[in-house]
Design goal:
Blueprint lengths: L4 H15 L3 H13 L9 H27 L2 H11 L2 H5 L2 H16 L11 H18 L35 H19 L5 H62 L6 H27 L10 E2 L1 H7 L7 H16 L4 H13 L9 H12 L4 H18 L2 H7 L3 H13 L5 H13 L3 H9 L2 H9 L7 H15 L2 H9 L1 H11 L8 H11 L3 H9 L2 H11 L4 H16 L42 H8 L1 E3 L32 H4 L16 H4 E4 L2 E4 L23
Helix pairs in contact: 3-4, 3-8, 6-7, 6-8, 9-10, 12-15, 12-28, 14-17, 15-18, 17-18, 18-21, 20-21, 21-24, 23-24, 24-27, 26-27
GO cellular component, one term: ciliary tip
Keywords: Cell projection, Cilium biogenesis/degradation, Coiled coil
Subcellular location: Cytoplasm, Cytoskeleton, Cilium basal body; Cytoplasm, Cytoskeleton, Microtubule organizing center, Centrosome, Centriole
Length: 713
């Protein structure tokens, strides 16, 4: 016979008090229950003894694991880790997965630390190789998109990382100490949960269920939104399909009539063209209408006073520092969004209010262009840099590129501003990256080709010793995208000797991530006979042969070089292999490409008397907060599509950013975030609670020319 619910609750309370050692309270509680003649399920002393023994066992295991961690014994540590830590705890929680990542990082650098007497080079290499394999195993998962950990993905690819300025925090004496505290708290939490009282388990399960319900509700609302978007796109595609079928049928009938001698009038052809143009115009108008409504009455995003924001970012009455801090806060709304969905909704709000004047606000557009073109002063530098960062961030998203691409004046001013930078400043880096991302659009390629972008890029890329890897990668990728066009190749033909010399030297550059873009750029321009003839006179064929002979490790690179040599020697018109000048933009290759570099090396800091980030927005520009039940709690990942082809060179526009979000950027920006005690875990007297990362402890590392790691999609 089952106990009454009240008695069961009292039994759970009694068990909880006993587990916490409240013996006097337990005795009093039991006496009162007996006085009320309540049935009591006496706690089994044997079970309590077993729990005490279990606790001692777990303490022994914990101390052993911490000792292996301190001594750098990777294999022994992970043997214990696999035996005693349930895999579902790690795999189902991104925060716990982050801790595992940091542990692998710790062992990767253990024998590289200056305070380790046994600097075993073989073990150091082995540990780093294991870390590299681990990175490969988690590529594509949510953790590989975590901006706070992204910089550490570069570690295996940096020569002598212990001497690199970007990793100073990682090699400090405090880093392993703080990691040890995290691991200790994590083990306490895991082992204490093994023998939790029933009352604690009931409360924990209730909290988990509540969290899951909120998460499911958020996912459901997001799916509803995306379903509406997909249905709208499907409806437009269906309409276009039936219109094209009708016109095709008419043209077939007309062709049949023409065969039997009936004359086809120009008026009829004009009518067909007009109908095709009308369909395209209606589609464009529909897209513009949808864009103008983006972010309005949306329950998922907070309502901001965009009218005031637009005024303040261009007004002469707003100080340079105030403008810079506001632009920084707007960028953080995108780069620090908790989910891709929230990022997308915030971007839609920016587009809906025409933040940059790319739709119809010509006055706003003119004022922004004026700021990009203005000479740099002390604080004015930050304004220009923050504009460059914000534009680069918007260009990193497909909808952002759709918004920016029609603004020819802005694109031209971005190029002029980048050219005006004498050295490889952060302004130049971010403007160049934004231009490269926009070059995924054919209309933008045409603008850049007409603006002689190629004649700027070739000399720029000839001085690789003065360029950061970020500039180098995006510069070469932009050159490749432009060379895929016929007019782009013709521009290269005008400076053929310089183009061949620069690209030939880049074939031996130590940054391997530029190779696919260099090879494809060479392939594109070598389809022109005039350039092939000039290349032969410059002995490019011998240079390629020598590179093929010495290439022993990378079969893909060797195949690309052989492909180039074959093209150079066999001659013939290969231009048909290149992208057609009439080809449409390919949306499948035009994905969101957020990267850690967008916030990297940002030296703008608010003083004690200034506001920044969300606090600045909330204080001066908020008009309506998101309802609490609509806040998304989960972190989603970008749906990046990988492309594979048998052709060893690229034939479509692409961008290094596709990989920079999954392979590390060049510096350890925000490394302190992954080290601060409260960022990963919060310790409690009776357990261990997982919490999300916070922005309040975020610190930045400033750097300009650190090595970057990327890998072509």
């Amino acid at each position: 016979m089952s106990q009454p619910i009240d008695s069961r609750i009292n039994d759970y309370i009694n068990e909880y008090l006993t587990s916490k050692g409240y013996s006097n309270t337990v005795n009093t509680f039991l006496q009162e229950r007996q006085d009320h003649q309540e049935p009591i399920d006496e706690i089994n002393n044997e079970n309590l003894d077993n729990k005490e023994k279990e606790k001692e066992t777990y303490n022994t295991i914990k101390e052993n694991m911490l000792k292996q961690l301190d001594d750098g014994n990777r294999e022994e540590f992970f043997q214990l880790w696999s035996e005693h830590i349930p895999s579902n705890i790690i795999n189902n929680d991104s925060t716990m997965k982050s801790l595992e990542f940091l542990i692998y990082t710790h062992f990767a650098v253990y024998y590289l630390r200056s305070n380790i007497s046994d600097n075993n080079e073989l073990l150091a290499q082995e540990n780093m190789e294991v870390f590299k394999v681990y990175i490969e195993s988690i590529r594509g998962r949510a953790i590989s998109q975590t901006s706070d950990l992204l910089p550490l993905f570069a570690l295996p690819y940096v020569t002598e990382p212990e001497k690199h300025a970007s990793f100073q925090e990682l090699f400090s004496d405090e880093w392993p100490v703080q990691l040890r505290i995290k691991v200790s708290n994590f083990l306490d939490w895991v082992f204490s949960n093994r023998s939790s009282p029933n009352l604690v388990e009931l409360l924990q399960n209730g909290e988990r269920a509540s969290h899951v319900l909120v998460q499911l509700n958020n996912e459901n609302e997001e799916l509803k939104y995306r379903n509406r978007e997909t249905s709208r796109q499907l409806k437009n595609l269906s309409t276009d399909y039936y219109n094209l079928i009708n016109i095709t049928m008419e043209l077939v009938e007309t062709l049949q009539q023409a065969i039997v001698g009936k004359t086809i009038t120009n008026d009829y052809i004009d009518n067909v063209c007009a109908r095709l143009l009308l369909a395209r115009t209606q589609e464009s108008m529909s897209n513009m209408l949808n864009s103008s409504q983006l972010g309005t009455d949306d329950p998922f995003i907070e309502k901001l006073d965009y009218g005031k924001i637009k005024r303040d970012i261009v007004s002469i009455s707003t100080s340079a520092r105030e403008k810079a801090l506001l632009l920084q806060a707007l960028r953080w709304k995108l780069t620090k969004a908790k989910s891709d969905f929230q990022r997308e909704k915030m971007l839609e709000s920016f587009i809906g209010c025409d933040l940059l004047g790319c739709r119809s606000d010509i006055e706003q557009q003119a004022k922004i262009i004026k700021q990009l073109s203005s000479p740099i002063g002390s604080d004015a530098y930050y304004v220009k840099e923050e504009w460059a960062r914000l534009i680069n961030t918007i260009a990193s998203l497909r909808k952002g590129r759709n918004y920016l691409a029609p603004n020819e004046s802005l694109i031209i001013s971005m190029q002029k501003a980048a050219i005006s930078e004498a050295s490889d400043t952060l302004i130049k880096q971010h403007l160049l990256a934004a231009l490269q991302k926009l070059s995924l659009r054919r209309s933008v390629q045409t603008i850049m080709i007409n603006q002689n972008t190629i004649k700027w890029l070739i000399p720029l890329l000839s001085h690789t010793d003065r360029l950061s890897d970020y500039t180098l990668e995006y510069g070469v990728a932009l050159l490749m995208n432009l060379c895929l066009r016929t007019n782009g190749r013709k521009k290269c033909a005008e400076i053929a000797e310089q183009a061949i010399t620069v690209l030939s030297s880049l074939l031996t550059h130590p940054n391997q991530e530029t190779r696919p873009y260099v090879n494809s750029s060479l392939y594109s321009i070598l389809t022109l006979k005039s350039i092939r003839d000039r290349a032969m006179s410059l002995n490019l064929d011998n240079h390629l042969r020598s590179l093929i002979r010495v290439e022993k490790t990378n079969s893909e690179t060797k195949g690309q070089l052989e492909f180039l040599l074959n093209l150079l020697l066999k001659g013939g018109d290969q231009d048909g292999r290149q992208t057609s000048d009439n080809e449409q933009d390919n949306d499948d290759e035009d994905q969101d490409i957020m990267e850690a570099d967008l916030d990297l090396a940002d030296k703008l800091r608010a003083t004690d008397k200034e506001l920044s980030g969300d606090i600045l927005i909330d204080e001066h520009y908020i008009s309506q907060k998101i309802p609490p039940n609509n806040k998304l709690q989960r972190a989603t990942t970008n749906n990046m599509k990988s492309k594979s082809t048998n052709d060893p060179v690229l034939h479509r526009p692409t961008t290094p950013g596709h990989v920079r979000q999954s392979m590390a950027a060049h510096a350890v920006d925000s490394l302190v975030n992954s080290l601060a005690m409260d960022d990963l875990y919060r310790s409690h007297s009776d357990g261990f609670e997982s919490i999300i990362y916070t922005d309040s402890t975020k610190k930045h590392f400033s750097s300009n020319n650190e090595p970057r790691i990327s890998n072509k999609e």
